[in-house]
Write a structure and sequence with these properties.
It is a single chain. It is built from 4 helices and 6 strands, in the order αααββαββββ. The chain is α+β, with helices and mostly antiparallel strands. The chain has a single domain (about 25-155), classed as Nuclear Transport Factor 2, Chain: A, CATH 3.10.450. A hairpin with a 2-residue loop joins β5 (about 125-140) and β6. α2 (about 25-45) runs antiparallel to α3 (about 50-55). It is globular.
Length: about 160
């Protein structure tokens, strides 16, 4: 009887705490936030390898580019688009505002939305592109976040 009196409260305690979502998302949110910093760095350096590290190499990954209204399927097509831009843009400086990062209860998926503001030089002339809406869907693979979907768009004026 003493064993039952001891084990029953212990079993009830563990049953109750197992019902709560005890996933610590702080580390994951910081990791996704770091991806934004690396994304800006990839543009500043025109570093395709850094982009390659951020984006999934899935053949069915989808990128919707609001600048051109094009839809890119797979990393290779998006990579070619980025490399094309590298030839035209210099001194790219990206900042973010209104950033929201969410982590799924399972801890395997994340989604991000933010407003992107960019200063750059295009064919020798300074330019500013503010208000670009960016959303990402990310998946954690082998303890590392990767972008599996992205959407860029401008609000209608």
């Amino acid at each position: 009887m003493k064993i039952i009196n001891f084990l029953l409260p212990v079993l009830i305690f563990f049953s109750i705490i197992s019902c709560f979502d005890n996933t610590d998302t702080t580390y994951d949110k910081k990791s996704v936030q770091q991806m934004l910093i690396r994304y800006a760095e990839a543009w500043r350096l025109k570093d395709i390898d850094l982009f390659d590290d951020l984006f999934s190499d899935d053949r069915d990954m989808v990128i919707l580019d609001g600048n051109s209204s094009e839809r890119f399927i797979g990393w290779i097509s998006w990579k070619q688009r980025l490399q094309k831009h590298f030839g035209s843009f210099e001194n790219v400086d990206i900042s973010y505002e209104n950033t929201v990062i969410k982590i799924s209860k399972s801890g395997k998926f994340s989604w991000l939305s933010c407003i992107v503001n960019t200063e750059y030089t295009y064919k020798g002339k300074p330019g500013i592109m503010n208000g670009l809406r960016m959303t990402w869907v990310l998946e954690k693979r082998n303890k590392k976040w990767t972008i599996v979907h992205a959407h860029f768009s401008f609000p209608k004026e």
